[in-house]
């Protein structure tokens, strides 16, 4: 049975897109969106929409995608350390203002016949409908008051979301050292006259710069809701003066935050179903929050169209979306750990750092990146091993390079000597367990970092080996299945390990 009345709580990208698709799929259904804010009172700057997302949106609703692409700005990607810059071309990565995104989605929802109600905060329980889609965002009251088994994990690092009054030429990742520690920007243009300028740092740097105090002062009673951390913005304008070309940073309720990763045991309860940030979040460094919310909308509407009843449809929606969401959350978890430990790697040449960035979560193989970013990968390989690899065996070439480490020389990266064995079987290399393993490696003349054969465990021990190299200077060899030689090669070029020990184990 198709629902006759659907109420959507929350007019963010997830809620608006779900409303339009529902109405298109089932024109007889009455669909209403309830948004607490006004039609144009959103906060935030731009968000990114990558090629894969655009393809999925195109298949679901080409009209909306066309207007989103028209409102967005395509950009390349650069990594900058001091004066050194590495640039990667990207044909279809666009930035779009959140205001524009919402205005396109509002327009298309209304065109399809959706009724939009603004300006009143509602609860899922008070909405009279056959189906309630709770797209009420990361702080979802529906999730918090329901029995969805919601859990929130708070990140170690701190970030601040602000903007600029000019469009950068390309996306920029740039660390800057200060007397207090390292700040890193992730910035990208999203219209002719604006860029998102997100800045991240670690807790010690944040405290040394006095931002724990400015953050606390903004929490004092009587502070206007829309106030930004102006002290931090003025300080960071100086830190990033070069990237900002001397222009100011613009705040918009801008305060230091710690990223909250939301997970839920269940996404549906009775006639209510969670969608988007209300159900799950993934660290901003993989730029996937909007994508996940809109892809949830596509899957939910498909599931409802298949019927036969709401409960079955909710089960199917969750079966389809949960594996994809959990995969992205795992990529995002690795990416978050990489960014939170970023300052330790800024000694790498910028091209090798770009390779490390692309391979941080294990989803971009080295030879694929060599096709999309041949100049950067070519330079990184010359820095790593001298010369040019043959086009047909890049990975073999990486493994066959010689190494000189202190007074020891090795004919290839797979020629591993007798070393102390360090067994690594953990989830987070920067946890106290990881600290203890790094301490064990200190003072030895090299460690063989071994562990379970599965790929996730290998990626984690490459990260742990990198910590050992960077924090202790001890030589590392990472053991891994020969079937995972692509990951091991990416680890070598990225400076995660000095040597690799290939095993015949099945990954
Ligand atoms: C720093 C940062 C950078 C990001 N960068 C990117 C990026 O580059 N690319 C990307 O894709 N994503 C990015 N995101 C994530 C993205 O902003 C969100 O994931 C996305 O907006 C989620 O959409 P949503 O519809 O689920 O929720 P939201 O966009 O949060 O919308 C929820 C809506 O519900 C409304 N609401 C809440 N409660 C009620 C209520 N009780 N009654 C009525 N209305 C209610 C809210 O006002 C809001 O409008 C970023 C996020 C952060 C924090």
TrEMBL record:
Q: Which domain of life is it from?
A: Bacteria
Q: Which Gene3D superfamilies match?
A: 3.30.9.20, FAD/NAD(P)-binding domain (3.50.50.60)
List the protein's name. FAD-binding domain-containing protein
**In the UniProt record, does the keyword NAD occur?**
yes
Q: Where is the FAD-binding domain?
A: 99-329
Q: Does the keyword NAD apply?
A: yes
Which InterPro entries does the record cross-reference, listed alphabetically? FAD-bd (IPR002938), FAD/NAD-bd_sf (IPR036188), PheA/TfdB_FAD_monoxygenase (IPR050631)
């Amino acid at each position: 049975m198709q629902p006759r009345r659907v109420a959507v709580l929350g007019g963010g990208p997830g809620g608006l897109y779900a409303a339009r698709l529902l109405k298109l799929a089932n024109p007889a259904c009455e669909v209403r969106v309830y948004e607490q804010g006004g039609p144009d009172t959103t906060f935030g700057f731009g968000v990114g929409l990558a090629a894969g997302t655009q393809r999925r949106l195109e298949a679901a609703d080409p009209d909306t995608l066309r207007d989103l692409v028209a409102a967005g700005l395509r950009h390349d990607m650069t990594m900058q350390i001091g004066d050194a810059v590495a640039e990667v071309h990207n044909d279809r990565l666009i930035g779009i203002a959140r205001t524009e995104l919402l205005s396109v989605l509002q327009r298309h929802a209304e065109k399809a016949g959706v009724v939009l109600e603004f300006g009143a905060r509602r609860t899922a329980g008070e909405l009279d409908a056959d189906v309630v889609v709770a797209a009420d965002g990361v702080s979802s009251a529906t999730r918090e008051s329901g029995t969805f088994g919601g859990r929130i994990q708070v990140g170690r690092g701190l970030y601040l979301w602000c903007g600029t009054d000019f469009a950068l030429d390309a996306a920029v990742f740039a660390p800057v050292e200060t007397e207090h520690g390292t700040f890193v920007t992730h910035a990208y243009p999203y219209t002719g006259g604006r860029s998102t300028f997100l800045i991240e740092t670690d807790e010690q740097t944040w405290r040394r710069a006095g931002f724990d105090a400015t953050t606390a002062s903004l929490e004092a009673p009587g502070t206007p809701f829309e106030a930004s951390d102006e002290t931090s913005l003025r300080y960071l304008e100086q830190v990033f003066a070069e990237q900002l070309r001397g222009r100011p940073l613009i705040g918009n309720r801008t305060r230091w935050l710690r990223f909250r990763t939301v997970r839920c045991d269940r996404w549906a309860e009775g006639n209510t179903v969670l969608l988007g940030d209300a159900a799950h979040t993934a660290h901003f460094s993989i730029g996937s929050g909007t994508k996940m919310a809109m892809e949830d909308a596509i899957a939910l509407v498909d599931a409802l169209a298949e019927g036969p009843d709401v409960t079955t449809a909710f089960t199917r929606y969750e079966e389809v979306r949960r594996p994809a969401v959990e995969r992205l959350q795992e990529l995002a978890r690795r990416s978050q750990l990489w960014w939170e430990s970023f300052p330790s790697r800024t000694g790498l040449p910028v091209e090798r750092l770009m390779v490390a960035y692309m391979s941080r979560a294990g989803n971009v193989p080295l030879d694929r990146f060599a096709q999309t970013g041949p100049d950067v990968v070519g330079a990184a390989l010359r820095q790593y091993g001298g010369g040019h690899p043959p086009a047909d065996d890049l990975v073999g070439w990486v493994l066959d390079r010689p190494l000189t480490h202190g007074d020891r020389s090795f004919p290839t990266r797979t020629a591993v000597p007798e070393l102390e064995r360090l067994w690594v079987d953990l989830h987070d290399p920067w946890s106290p367990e990881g600290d203890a393993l790094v301490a064990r490696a200190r003072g030895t003349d090299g460690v063989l970092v071994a562990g379970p054969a599965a790929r996730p465990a290998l990626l984690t021990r490459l990260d742990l080996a990198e910590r050992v190299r960077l924090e202790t200077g001890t030589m590392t060899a990472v053991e891994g299945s020969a079937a995972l030689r692509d990951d091991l090669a990416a680890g070598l070029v990225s400076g995660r390990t000095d040597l690799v020990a290939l095993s015949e184990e099945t990954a």
